[in-house]
Write a structure and sequence with these properties.
alpha/beta, about 140 residues, 5 helices, CBS domain-containing protein, CBS_dom_sf, CBS_dom, CBS domain, CBS-domain
């Protein structure tokens, strides 16, 4: 089974600086084709995340001006974090229990990536296919 570290090797990490407008952040999400971005300060410390869900619940539904509203004012600050050495199953359990679709991954207190539920489900499907192939070969071996 693949590890969290192996999953992150194939993914880019994008961030947005604190103080950016919602408009700039949404444009960045669209440009990078991502659904969530960490918001960092000048030192690289993660202050929160901004997601499509934040846009809908905290900006659009409240009729806020996307050109004037700072992402810091509408981002999610209560973060669920995974450590780089956690198993994919542990990450999936955290995501399920907290009803989230993305989890930030840290290594020695430094942000190293983001795992989506899609990443973990694809990993499960891959593992199931391998198991099926092994069982198939075992059953039908001549």
């Amino acid at each position: 089974m693949e590890t969290i570290k192996q999953i992150l090797n194939s993914k880019s990490l994008y961030t947005i600086k604190s103080g950016s407008t919602v408009k700039d952040t949404v444009n960045f999400l669209a440009e990078k084709n991502i659904g969530l971005v960490p918001i960092i300060d000048d030192t690289g410390k993660v202050l929160g995340v901004f997601s499509e869900r934040d846009l809908v619940k905290r900006v659009i539904s409240k009729d806020l001006d996307i050109y004037l509203t700072k992402v810091d004012d509408v981002m999610t600050k209560d973060l669920i974090i995974a450590k780089i050495d956690e198993s994919p199953q542990e990450c999936l359990t955290k995501m399920k229990n907290n009803k989230i679709r993305h989890i930030l991954v840290i290594d020695n207190e430094k942000l190293v990536g983001i795992i989506s539920i899609k990443d973990l489900l694809e990993l499960n499907i891959q593992d199931m296919k391998e198991t099926i192939e092994v069982l198939h070969n075992y059953i039908y071996a001549r």
